[in-house]
Amino acid sequence: MRKLSMVALSLVLLLTACAPNFQKQEEVVQEKDDETKEKAIIPKYKISDKYYRTIMPFEPGEARGMVVNNLNTRYDITEFETGLMRVAQNSFPTDEYVFKEGQYLKRSTVTSWLEREMTPAQVEAKEKELQAKAKKENRNEKITVKNLGLNPPLPGNGDVHEQNKKNPIYLAHILEHNYLVQSGKEDTYQLGGIAIGLALNSVHYYQTEQYGAVYEKNISRSVLEAEGKKIAQEVINRIRGIEELRNVPITIGLFEQESRSSVVPGNFFTYAEVSQGSNNIGSWKDIKEEYILFPSEKAEKDHRDDLTFFQNFKQDVEEYFPNFNGVIGKGFYLDGQLQELNIEIPIQFYGEAEAIGFTQYVTGLVMEHFPNYISVQVSVSSVLGQEALIVKKPDQDEPFVHIYQ
After folding, report:
1. How far is the CA of 53 from the CAs of 30, 31, 93, 126, 248, in angstroms?
2. Are 189 and 30 within 8 A, CB to CB?
3. Largest CA distance in the chain
4. Spatial distance between the Cα atoms of 88 and 92, rounded to a whole number of angstroms
5. 124: Cβ contacts below 8 Å, ≥ 6 apart
6. Which PROSITE patterns match (predicted)?
């Protein structure tokens, strides 16, 4: 117990010594356009080269929060955001650019683009409906419906199942990130590029009636990729119609989200760069990222060696609690190589001494079973909340261990 306490104390002191000094920030000028300039602050401290510094004060985008309602799981929500930042690093290095939440795609714009496209007959019917409403309210105006939906239309007649199977909703969400870079003056930053993420559905969910059963239509990766690229080109064309974005470089990525029942997130699988002032997407580049659940059939099929490491670890954990089998892992793969493994162990403890003893035992298993080149994080929890955290970074001789009090 004393050893664990001293490790935790040493790390607290180390982190305190390395903590950012928030009194020392970089004061800059942010150029929003040719006439508008505002004072801003950029933190000098950066956690890692993997992360962007963020310009302050934080200015939320108008479309902020929509992702929560449009994606299937919290895993996809988190990965869509952080994954887009990783994609952006291919075009906008973290040592040159700073991050700002998307400011140009408004909530109403994103909402209209996510809708289904309407057929000519549906547009006509909608305009007549709105025209009648305007006349009833004594408004003498010409109504024109903007047909901006990027998802395929439903004809509106015939079997509902067949219509949905032939015309699934591909596009689930659109996310915009802005990246600022220094202009001619050292202390002045301006928009240097934007990243656009398109979240696509691997499963289309639909209902035949308002409160009826929910049906599913699986969408293959090949179909999703083809449709996603067509949507991406139209998105680029529309973005170039926004005055402030006519000439900035754009990086756009396609993200395949998982089903509603998945316990691992989806991933970005391709991206493209659009040069300054151009509408031409050009060539797409593959992104070989993937999340795998351990244990699972996919892990057995594609990553048998890594599954063996995990299963041996799991079996040794179960020796401590013979009737327990709740160990699950989520592995992050890049170019087919396991990079990170996050393991969750939910357990019932009956005392602090038991929690400490179990944590020490699991820490030894982490050092024993997993290759030194991967990052491993183990979260131990009970019905009372988090009990312990074990983190081992690549090539690290001693892990970080924290027991929650």
Report:
1. 14, 17, 11, 46, 20
2. yes
3. 81
4. 6
5. none
6. PROKAR_LIPOPROTEIN (PS51257)
And the tokens for 121?
A: 């007959």
Residue the block writes with tokens 């390395």: 18
Number of H helices, E strands in the chain: 10, 16
- Count of Cβ atoms closer than 10 Å to residue 196 Cβ: 23
State the Cα–Cα distance between residues 209 and 319, nearest whole angstrom: 51
Burial 129-157 (b: 16+ CB within 10 A, else e): eebeeeeeeeeeeeeebebebbbbbbeee
92 sits in the region (left: phi over 0; alpha: psi -120 to 50; else beta) called: beta
* Cα distances (Å, whole numbers) of residue 112 to 107, 115, 133, 148: 9, 5, 21, 6
Tokens 């239309």 map to which residue? Answer: 153
CA distances from 200 to 138, 246, 270, 389 (A): 43, 25, 12, 34
Listing DSSP states for 114-174 in one string gives HSBPPPHHHHHHHHHHHHHHHHHTT------------BPPP-SSS-HHHHHHHS---EEEE
pLDDT tens-digit readout, 86-105: 999 999 999 999 999 999 99
What is the structure's pLDDT at 32? 64
Structure tokens at 341: 């493994």
The shares of helix, strand and coil residues in the chain, as percent rounded to the nearest 5, are: 35, 30, 40
**DSSP state letters, 217-269:** EE--HHHHHHHHHHHHHHHHHHHTTSGGGSSS-EEEEEEEE--TT-SS--EEE
Q: Which helix (DSSP H) or strand (DSSP E) does residue 317 occupy? A: helix 304-320
Task: State phi, psi for 376 to the nearest 5 degrees.
Answer: -125, 130
Kindly report, residue by residue over 288-304, the tens digit of the pLDDT.
999 999 999 999 999 99
The end-to-end CA distance of the chain, in Å, is 13
Q: Which of 45-59, 140-154, 389-403 has the lowest mean pLDDT?
A: 45-59
